[in-house]
């Protein structure tokens, strides 16, 4: 057994002055009488058995205090195995970071809104292997599949428009995501592809990448981001950043074909709320129960000690109010 907070054990030294104070009070409370002989008080049976039991409440209280200090020190056992059932799949997030993702029909803009909602999605799935692929005119892997979501979220914060050549290479981004998840041993492999445009560059056509995903049993959910009609877009001018409304052009037929080919589903996010609902819907659809054997190095063991403290205090109270009620 080990202790998470061993410094609390030094509080056991407080028992010494507590015991000393009890002995001092006990001696002060006893009356004295000088007699020529004490033989009359030594007759067998004169002293009540309750007199010998009067110290038991104090002993119980000291034991309770000592054990309470042990509880504060958090006793833990080590080397324990635990079988559990959990839910987990492998997921690659393929996110468009092209210049058009800076449009402000979503707040503060499409890219930041997508990052915030995706981060919440990641936090809600602690048992999944999740990776991140970004694309615009090119594509690269920001984070491979991992269960270390702290690292993933830190890398997620670093992505921004302009990191790579501008454009919208949907096919290239999807193909890159497929290459990152195709060798996974998980029963369920999922890609969530988010974009706000149509494929206009790259060597691989989106439908071809979808066929490759289907070959490896990968399901692709596609999300088109952008309001319907016009959206405010920032332009850098000699007078600073100016906003101009530009038409929203999302190649929905291609995105629908990608999802249909792979057994996924297409969604359209026109604002922050709908984007959040889309990720929530995907989260509900993609659940797979798996059996996991976890090895835990440390197991909290304070509960039994806490119950013992309660039991000792209960016995003390019962003794004081029943058998030892009239004993000082």
Automatic annotation (TrEMBL):
Entry's transmembrane regions: 7-24, 52-73, 305-323
Record PROSITE patterns: VWFA
Keywords, sorted A to Z: Cell membrane, Membrane, Transmembrane, Transmembrane helix
InterPro entries according to UniProt: Aerotolerance_reg_N, UPF0353/GerABKA_families, vWA_BatA_type, VWF_A, vWFA_dom_sf
Coiled-coil regions, chain positions: none
Gene3D superfamilies found in the cross-reference section: von Willebrand factor, type A domain
Pfam families: BatA (PF07584), VWA (PF00092)
Domain VWFA per the UniProt entry, residue ranges: 90-282
CDD domains from the UniProt entry: vWA_BatA_type (cd01467)
PANTHER family, A to Z: LEUCINE ZIPPER PROTEIN 4, SPORE GERMINATION PROTEIN
Name of protein: Ca-activated chloride channel family protein
Top-level taxonomy: Bacteria, Pseudomonadati, Bacteroidota, Bacteroidia, Bacteroidales
């Amino acid at each position: 057994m080990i202790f998470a907070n061993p410094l609390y054990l030094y509080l056991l030294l407080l028992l010494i002055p507590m015991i000393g104070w009890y002995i001092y009070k006990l001696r002060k409370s006893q009356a004295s009488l000088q007699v020529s002989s004490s033989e009359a008080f030594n007759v067998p049976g004169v002293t009540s058995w309750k007199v010998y039991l009067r110290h038991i409440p104090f002993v119980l209280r000291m034991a309770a205090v000592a054990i309470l200090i042990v509880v504060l020190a958090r006793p833990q056992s080590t080397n324990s195995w635990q079988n559990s059932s959990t839910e987990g799949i492998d997921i690659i997030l393929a996110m468009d970071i092209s210049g058009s993702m800076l449009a402000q029909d979503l707040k503060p803009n499409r890219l930041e809104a997508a990052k915030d909602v995706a981060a919440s999605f990641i936090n809600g799935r602690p048992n999944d292997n999740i990776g991140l692929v970004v694309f615009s005119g090119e594509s690269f892997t920001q984070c491979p599949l991992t269960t270390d979501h702290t690292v993933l979220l830190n890398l997620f914060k670093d992505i921004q428009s302009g990191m790579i050549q501008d454009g919208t290479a949907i096919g290239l981004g999807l193909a890159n995501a497929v290459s990152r998840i195709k060798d996974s041993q998980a029963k369920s492999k999922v890609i969530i592809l988010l974009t706000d445009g149509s494929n206009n560059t790259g060597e691989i056509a989106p439908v071809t990448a979808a066929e490759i995903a289907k070959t490896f049993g990968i399901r692709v959910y596609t999300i088109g981001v952008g309001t319907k009609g016009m959206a405010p877009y920032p332009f850098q001018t000699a007078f600073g950043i100016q906003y101009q409304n530009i038409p929203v052009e999302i190649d929905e037929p291609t995105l629908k074909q990608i999802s249909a080919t792979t057994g996924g589903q297409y969604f359209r996010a026109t604002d922050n709320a709908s984007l959040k609902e889309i990720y929530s819907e995907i989260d509900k659809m993609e659940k797979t129960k798996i059996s996991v054997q976890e090895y835990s190095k440390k197991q909290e063991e304070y509960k039994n000690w806490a119950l013992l403290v309660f039991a000792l205090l209960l016995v003390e109270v019962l003794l004081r109010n029943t058998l030892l009620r009239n004993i000082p």
